[in-house]
Each structure stands twice: as structure tokens, then as C-alpha cells.
């Protein structure tokens, strides 16, 4: 099975589907990952919202957004390698963080060749409170619509909003055996771990038992809150 995972920012795969990624790889599926943005606004946002752990951020705090973006992409490559993704299965769109909504058409073009033969597409939820997550959802969904992927299943994860799919449209994947590996992989996102909330979330990974998705088909588009 070919599985393509869409990630708005480097580290969103960790908190949405990292255990599932490792499980699917262990099952020998052909797993691909798409990083949509470059995290360049990370430090700027962290300063604005008082999220930066100052003592740990010294080497990053005065870097430009361009420099932070390059670091973010390098971290994503390192994380993808730690998961076990072959280089040819890792895609970096390099859209500017906080600007993916203005890159939807380009994202659709880039996505179509990646997903044209996908059996499963994993993506953030619709009606999303984060504009880059909403853009990523729209990119993946619009590309699938243009390709008319009627035989593809869509696994939708919710990070900045709620999963409102009916129970028959939900799937829970047990990932307990992978959670320590996920915790270790997250340590490679050094810039993300400069955030207070992310640092707290990192600690919870060691206790995570499952990951939940809404599961849809192309005919479900527009009929559910999350899709």
C-alpha cells in the first residue's frame, strides 16, 4: 500500500501520526511524507507569544527567518531519516511558514504527481484554526479531487481543532510499542523544543497509547466537518 502523509510544519507528523508511521513502515507499506512549510516563523511567533525558553534559545534567538527556515528543513530531513523514510519518499515544498494559504495552487501541482497512485492519504482536518494546516488540507484534498481518486482512503488528523466525525468514520491505531521511539525522534527537532508548550507535549509522548483519525472517501468531501 502506498501511503502519503501531508505535514503542514516539521514536527506536526510527531503529534499527529508518528506512531502510525512507524507501524505502517513495520508492515512494509510504501510510506511517503510531504513537508509543506519551512518553520521560518518559529522564533518570531515564539517571541510574540512568550513561548521561547530563553536559556535554550541563545544560538537561535537572533537568527533571521531565512536562517531559521533552513534549519527547520534540515531538521525535517534528519527526522525523516530517523523514521526510516527513503530519500525519494521525502518531499519538501519549502513554502514559507504562515504563508501556505497563498501557495495552494502551487501545492496542488506539486502534490498531484506524488499522490496519483496513493492508496491512503493522511492529512490535517478541514475547518482548521491554523491557516497553514487549513492550507495543507486544501492542497491535498484539491489535488485528490482533480485526480478523481475515488479508490483512495483519506485519514484525517485533528491538531488545532476537534475530531467531529461519527464513530463509524473514526479509526484508532494502537501505537504503544512505538511511543519511546517517537519520543527519541522528536528530540531531533531542537528548534521546536525551544517552545514551552512543545516541550510539555514532548513529555506526553512517552504515555501516548493511540492515534485517532477520521477515515473518509472522495465522495465524503464537504459532507463532514473534518473533510
Describe it for me?
With 227 residues, this protein is of the alpha/beta class. It has one domain (2-220): Rossmann fold, CATH 3.40.50.10320. The chain is 38% helix and 19% strand. It has seven helices and seven strands; from the N terminus they run E-H-E-H-H-E-H-E-H-E-E-H-H-E. The chain has a seven-stranded mixed sheet with strand order 3-2-1-4-5-7-6, sandwiched between helices. Helix 5 links the parallel strand 4 and strand 5. Helix 4 packs across helix 5. The mean pLDDT is 97.
Features:
alpha/beta, 19% strand, 7-stranded mixed sheet, 38% helix, Rossmann fold, 227 residues
Summarize this entry quickly.
The chain is an alpha/beta fold and 227 residues long. Helix content is 38%, strand content 19%.
CATH class term:
Alpha Beta
Largest sheet: 7 strands, mixed
Helix content: 25-40%
Mean pLDDT: 97
Could you state the order of secondary-structure elements as H and E? EHEHHEHEHEEHHE
Number of DSSP strand runs: 7
CATH superfamily: LmbE-like
End-to-end Cα distance, whole Å, is 22 Å
Give the spatial strand order of the biggest sheet: 3-2-1-4-5-7-6
**CA radius of gyration:** 17 Å
| SS element count, helices | 7
The tally of structural domains comes to: 1
Shape: globular
Which structural class best describes the helix and strand composition? alpha/beta
| Low-confidence spans | none
Question: Which architecture would the CATH scheme give at its second level?
Answer: 3-Layer(aba) Sandwich
Write the layout of secondary structure elements.
Elements: E1 2-7, H1 12-26, E2 30-37, H2 42-48, H3 65-83, E3 90-95, H4 104-115, E4 120-124, H5 131-147, E5 153-157, E6 170-174, H6 179-186, H7 196-204, E7 210-216
Parallel strand pairs: 1-2, 1-4, 2-3, 4-5
Antiparallel strand pairs: 5-7, 6-7
